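Justification of resources, computational component.

The compute hours requested in this renewal are based largely on the per-chain cost of generating structure records like the one below. Each record pairs the submitted sequence with a full structure-token output. That output is archived, and it is also reused by downstream analysis tasks.
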Amino acid sequence: SGTWSFNDELTRPSDRTRAHYNTLIIKQAAGEMSVEGVSFQQHLPPVVYKLDGSESTTINADGTTKAKAAWQGGTLAIDSRRTFAGPQGDFVIDTKETWTLSDGVLMIERTQTTGGGRPVTDRFAFTKGPLPAATNANARGRDEGAASGEVEGAFDGGRLLIQAVVGCPKDPVG
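The structure output for this chain reads:
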């Protein structure tokens, strides 16, 4: 349970751009778990999983998710199918995930097959707690002389890259 933040240092470089969310909000109750994903301009409403292997169905603005989740030793295995309306009819995403927790790191291995295509497998690392401000902003090349609040940004595969504007005086005249 709790807030878990994407850790790009512990995630393979080839998988980083396919991470859907920077933050997972996980809530556990007796026999079930809800997972909410948050990232720049993306929000996955909570999906609820029963932890006894029985099927759960979540319907929200992102479509319908049917899933089965069960503990296999110290690993949580989740099989899900999300269906949503696309311009040419229903679109289906089949996902198999394994969640393991070791030394404070939540590793999620996800194999996803979309539209009957070939499966793609990724591994993502999350650590408990909110992203630190510097990590969240991914501040690179910060110029201490830049004016506060003036930024330049770009979206990069699920991460918002924010840098201070270079060459801007601390106290703009105007």
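The chain has two helices and twelve strands. The radius of gyration is 19 Å.
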